[in-house]
Amino acid sequence: MLHKIRVSAIQRLCVQDGPGVRTTVFLKGCYLACPWCCNPETIHYDQNLYFEKNSQVCGSSKICKRCVVYGGCQPKEHCLLGAYEKTYVDYEVNDLLSLIERDMSLFKKGGGVTISGGEPLMQASQLYPLLTILRQRGVNIAIETSLYAPHTNFDLLKDLVDYWLVDVKFQFGFISYIEKDKYKKDFELNLNFIQEQSQNNCLYRMVLSQQALPHTEAILKRLLKYQIPSLEILACHQLAANKYKQLGLSVPLFSSPSDEELKRFSKYINDKGIKTTILNL
């Protein structure tokens, strides 16, 4: 399956994922496991998670005996009652390309394709032929990434990318993990390239939870250390809580800062020389 691209979802008419109106492709798999992740189904590349869509019908019919849940051989996602939905599809490059090109008229008006995740750089080799074709056809390509990925993966794709959306991982509760992470050096190499070659085509973002607020100084220290010039701040939210429940996972305990707390944090970082904006989704 390694030649195929493992996709969790495709969303059209996106306006917050890069310049213009875009088609965003969410890939499965990530090197990190942020405890506030809003796409929990994308974290594990090989894990067969399922959305429980109609739990009230599960086990209600004789045909349920065919399902692996009840000792049968039929995969969950083949449920005839629609009780489960698989969280990814493996696409051949040409098949995914055909789906993306349905929006070519929008791309010609200043939009493009954004590859998100999960961590898109995990599937760099699978993405390379797709992005090469899109590039040849004049499609604007953006990648949303934490940059915590092997530099070899980043190096493979870097010349095919027009715009970077960098998810800054300086959130409370994760800083010490990141600092020790085996991809820390890769992160620094990847970030250094962007800052030298693509700074004008890069947007830095950070999710902020209420639990992070007492650690504002630690966050600022890292922003300054890595010379982040500007920052788009998103409030941590509970919109993914239902996803966690459907997947049978524990719902994260991170909570949203108040509007006033968000503004106060933004102003503090801004006053220290890092231009900030608050993104309201």
UniProtKB/TrEMBL annotation:
The entry lists its GO molecular-function terms as: 4 iron, 4 sulfur cluster binding; metal ion binding; oxidoreductase activity
User: Does 4Fe-4S count among this protein's keywords?
Assistant: yes
Q: Which PROSITE patterns match?
A: RADICAL_ACTIVATING (PS01087), RADICAL_SAM (PS51918)
Q: Which family does it belong to?
A: Belongs to the organic radical-activating enzymes family.
Record bears the keyword tRNA-binding: no
Key words of the record: 4Fe-4S, Iron, Iron-sulfur, Metal-binding, Oxidoreductase, S-adenosyl-L-methionine
Q: Which cofactor does it need?
A: [4Fe-4S] cluster
- PANTHER family in alphabetical order: PYRUVATE FORMATE-LYASE 2-ACTIVATING ENZYME, PYRUVATE FORMATE-LYASE-ACTIVATING ENZYME
Instruction: Supply the InterPro entries for this chain.
Output: Aldolase_TIM, Organic_radical-activating, Radical_activat_CS, rSAM
| Name recorded for this polypeptide | 4Fe-4S cluster-binding domain-containing protein
